[in-house]
Amino acid sequence: MTDAPKPTPSTSQVDPRLLEILVCPLTKGPLQYDRAAQELISESARLAYPIRDGIPIMLVDEARKLDG
User: Strand, coil or helix: what is 52?
Assistant: First the structure.
C-alpha cells in the first residue's frame, strides 16, 4: 500500500460547481477564484477567503484584507 501525496496549493482543486454557488458571506456578492493564491476574492468586501486542502474557508475572521 502506498501513501497518496498530500495535496499542495498547486494540485488542490475546488469543484467548479461549488464556485458557481459560493458568495461572500459578508456582502452576498460574487467571488473570483485566484488559483495561484488559492483564495476566493470578494472585491466588494475587499477580502480574500483562503482555500485549504481544496476547501474554501468562508469565515470573515479567516479572510485576508486586500490592499487598496
Answer: strand
- Go through the domains of the chain in sequence order and give each one's CATH number: 16-65 (2.20.25.10)
CA distance linking residue 22 with residue 56, whole number of Å: 9
Judge whether 53 and 39 are in contact, CB under 8 Å.
Answer: no
- What pLDDT is stored for residue 14 in this prediction? 82
pLDDT > 70: percent of the chain: 82
Q: Alpha helix (H) ranges present in 6-56?
A: 16-21
**pLDDT, mean of residues 26-42:** 96
